[in-house]
Amino acid sequence: MPINRREILRSLSVVGALGLPSARVSRAQDDDANNWPDSPFLSGNYAPVFEEIEAENLRVVGRIPEALEGMFVRNGPNPQFPPIGNYHWFDGDGMLHGVLLRGGKASYRNRWVRTHGFVEEREAGRAIWGGLSNPPNPALLAQGKPMFKNAANTSVVWHDGKLLALWEGGEPHIISVPDLGTVGPYDFAGRLKHAFTAHPKIDPQTGEMFCFGYQPVRPYLQYSVVDAEGTLQSTTPIDLPKPVMMHDFAITEHHAIFMDLPATFNFVRMLSGGPFLSFEPDRGARFGILPRKGDGSQIRWFESPSCYVFHTLNAFEEGDEIVLIACRYERFPGSLGMGGPPLEGRPDAPGPIDEDPRLHRWRFNLATGATTEETLDDLPCEFPRINDTVMGRPSRFGYVMDSAMTGFHKVDLHGGPILHHPHGPGRLGGEGVFVPRPDATTEDDGWLITYVFDQASETSELVVIDTLAFDEGPVARILIPSRIPYGFHGTWLPASVLG
Ligand SMILES: [Fe+2]
Predict the structure, then answer these.
(1) Distance, CA 453 to ligand 1 centroid (Å)?
(2) What whole-number distance in Å separates Cα of residue 94 and Cα of residue 111?
(3) How many A from CA of 382 to the centre of ligand 1?
């Protein structure tokens, strides 16, 4: 089998999601525990689970809202075998955790995403691929295998009647619903020619999906538009001076916004003993504005002080200005350099967010070329989400996870008070997914849902928060009979799409 150099190099672009929290350090538990290395990302509630289960009629504390019918699906890393070499949270095999709400009852199931790499390792009974922080293994190339395994572990998106499991270093995988089985990799009928971001954007009014892929060889960035019927209509390269890690982007009604931030890939640096991925703040930051269906050569760059952004909240147009709101880091988090040592002054944290991101607003004036920006609040936060029905349009409310994972904040971008929803002592949760109430008349009428882990009982639950009563307790806590490890991004599938 010939080695596909392009595939190999594309797979090097890797690197997944974000935010990084705290958990106690203990060892991963498995029949073969001696083979599992000590790692904060294999300990506490970062440790993988090894059973795929189905459970019906889950116990509910409170009451599931009648109008909340559908399925919550969240992706996250869950290695099936002890890792080769260094392990980072981004490396684990993707596992989907889904809770189906129907007729006032709840059921749960979890399933690994069965990528080619996952299946090959399962047949071998051991890990074959090392993680992202390990040097490439030439033997894999000689065997015609990709340099890195598509972990399919970062996110999920629903589009064109398909649920896709996403990993930004490779192609999506189709997942069947509600059983969460893996159908297989998906390349949009052969039209997808680049890796696929974990953060595509869907225009709620047109149904189009906008996506991009980056890689450490030219073209460093490519951007594609998928129409509402699921046909990938166009791909255009976007010129960058250096290859960079680009985890997310944003759209407005007429534009796409790309973030050329100075987390750079460099083969020469790596071959001389340095890191492949490094933060070069002297390069500054640039934000590119491109007409949504434009050619990459039409992009217009706006310069800004150096920073890093993993996740955008939203973007929209106001007169001549493009407004972007995102969680901004002053520097690229050092712990993402794959070591993750405990933080000074935060010994309980396994090496997570050593730079606290804050909500930040940039304004790019298309008439004058000026950029203005401001931090909206000192609140350390990550995993920003909105009501997706206002994606790319002026929006008022954002929902963010506090950096310590202890709760959520509801942010009013019109200057109203920031509301807090704590998960409670010893309880940590992940990203909140907003579900609009079916008959909602306001942007913030709905629920915020997430998995919460209780450290004392070592149990997990799905928490449903009424976003119109945000600082009150959850309206429902759906108890899961299996631990759900901390993970990355999820989505809500309304009952109407489940059939
Ligand atoms: Fe992400």
Answers:
(1) 20
(2) 9
(3) 10
Q: What residues does the ion ligand 1 have nearby, CB within 5 Å? A: 17-18
Structural domain count, the chain = 1
* Chain segment 265-285, per-residue pLDDT in tens: 988 888 888 788 888 999 999
- Average pLDDT of the chain to the nearest whole number: 89
How far is 332 from 309, CA to CA, in rounded Å? Answer: 8
Is the pLDDT at 329 greater than 70, yes or no? yes
Please check whether residue 50 is in contact with residue 80, taking contact to mean a CB–CB distance below 8 angstroms: yes
Q: Which domain holds residue 468?
A: 5-342+350-498
How far is ligand 1, taken at its centre, from the CA of residue 15, in Å? Answer: 10
The CA 212 to ligand 1 mean position distance, Å, reads 14
Distance 32 CA to ligand 1 centre (A): 31
**CATH number for the domain that contains residue 144:** 2.120.10.30
Amino acid at 366: L
Q: Write down the pLDDT at residue 110.
A: 98
The phi, psi pair for 106, rounded to 5°, reads: -130, 140
The CA 68 to ligand 1 mean position distance, Å, reads 25
Low-confidence winner among 42-46, 193-197, 320-324, 409-413 (lowest mean pLDDT): 42-46
* Segment 53-97, tens digit of pLDDT: 999 999 999 999 999 999 999 999 999 999 998 888 899 999 999
pLDDT (tens digit per residue) in 397-426:
999 999 889 999 999 999 999 999 999 999
pTM for the full predicted model: 0.91
pLDDT, mean of residues 246-271: 94
How much distance in Å is there from the Cα of 460 to the middle of ligand 1? 22
Q: Say whether 496 sits in a helix, a strand or coil.
A: helix
